[in-house]
């Protein structure tokens, strides 16, 4: 399963530490279902934040669990970088499916 490490320009404060990178993995259907239980898909930012809590491998040295409440302090620039990486991982999964169906 693919992962991405995203550098954070401003970082995410968890406890006393400010972490400057986050590692995420490709989302599975179960991750999306769990995110929907936490936030409606009609509220896209909150849903994506809930999905992020499901697919985060680590934030710096913090290995979890990550909560939506912890993400509230995230700078919008860092959020955009994470969102882009989430989309890239989703696209990779689609590319893998397209390649598999070609055989």
UniProtKB/TrEMBL annotation:
Name of the protein: Phage tail assembly protein
